[in-house]
Amino acid sequence: METGFLARLPKGSDLLDAITAEFRTRSVKKAGFSLIGALESAVIGFYDTFERVYNYREFAGPLEIVSCIGNVSEKDGEIFVHAHIVISGEDFVCYGGHLASGSPIFAAELCATELPGFVPKRGFDDPTGLFLWSKW
Ligand code: ZN
What is the pLDDT of residues 41-61, one digit of tens each? Predict the structure, then answer.
């Protein structure tokens, strides 16, 4: 049984979509992952816990992916990726937050660890306004 995989993601693809596609192609429903590489530009979210909304900011590239980590579970019956990312520009200053769509890949290497057992499912959590894992 395969317990993990390495994948090089395609240049020009949206980072979040490309990560999700790797897990969906392999039918991996429960995993943790890390990823490094570079982006042409990025969109990162910050969750305002008072207003309960994501505020997004766009960053022009080129950008290093200093670190990107995340997890894989299920939401609405589909394999779902939640990822956070730290990026830096040529001034080496880092920004980070919730990875959003709209972040085209320059180069990206994904290192995933598949986890056995029950697959957690995301549902709406009223106290936070987020789609979190239901208790199990
Ligand atoms: Zn997040």
Answer: 999 999 999 999 999 999 999
